Amino acid sequence: LQGIVQAYKSGITLQGNTTSLGRWDFSGSFFFSISAITTIGYGNLSPSTVAGRIFCIFFSLFGIPLNLVLLNEIGQLMLLGVQHCARRLEEVFHWQKKASLLIKTCALVTGLLLFLLLPPLLFSDKEGWSYEEGFYYSFVTLSTIGFGDYVIGMNPDRTYPGWYKNVISLWILFGMAWLALVIKFGINFLE
C-alpha cells in the first residue's frame, strides 16, 4: 500500500496494469505552468522533489505578476477592439448610444460562446463529461476557483490529442481576461 501511495505522489496513477506517465510531458508541464501562474491550482499535479518545489516557488513569484500583466494587456486589447467597433458603427450609421450598447452586447455574447458555452462541447467529447459538467469546469477554471474535482486530460482510459492541453491552456488565459472584463463591467454597473 505504501508503494502505491508513493507511486501516486510521484505522478503515477495505477489502473490495473496501466499507468499514466504523460503527466510531465510538454503538454502536461505547460498546463501545470498555466495553472500555477493563474493561481487555479487544481491540486491534481504538483512537484514531488525539493528542487521542483523550490523552482515552483520562484517560477510562481515571477510568473504570477507577469501573468497579471499579460491578462491586463489581453483585456485592454479586447476592450480596445470593442471600443473601435463601437466608434466605427457610430461613424457609419450615426448611432450614439446604440452602437456602444450593441457592440458590448456582441462582445458579451461572443465571449459567452467562446469561453463558457462552446468549450463544454469539447469537454464532453474529449473527457466524456456531460455538458453541465463541462460548463461547471469552464466556470470554475476561468474564475480561478479550481476545486480539482474536474481536470482535463486525467482519465487514464482515454487518449488525448497532443494539442488538447495546449489549446486549453491558451483558452484559460484568454478566457480569464474576458471574464475579468465582464466582472469589471459588472462592478461598474453596480457602482
Automatic annotation (TrEMBL):
GO terms for cellular component: plasma membrane. Coiled coil: none annotated. It is a multi-pass membrane protein. The chain crosses the membrane at residues 26-45, 51-71, 101-123, 135-155, 167-187. GO terms for molecular function: outward rectifier potassium channel activity; potassium ion leak channel activity. Signal peptide: none annotated. It is found in: Membrane. Residues 20-78, 114-190 form the Potassium channel domain. It comes from the Eukaryota. Pfam families: Ion_trans_2 (PF07885). GO terms for biological process: stabilization of membrane potential. The keyword RNA-binding does not apply. InterPro entries: 2pore_dom_K_chnl (IPR003280), K_chnl_dom (IPR013099). SUPFAM superfamilies: Voltage-gated potassium channels. Keywords: Ion channel, Ion transport, Membrane, Potassium, Transmembrane, Transmembrane helix, Transport. PANTHER family: POTASSIUM CHANNEL SUBFAMILY K MEMBER 17, POTASSIUM CHANNEL, SUBFAMILY K. Belongs to the two pore domain potassium channel (TC 1.A.1.8) family. This is KCNKH protein. The gene is Kcnk17.
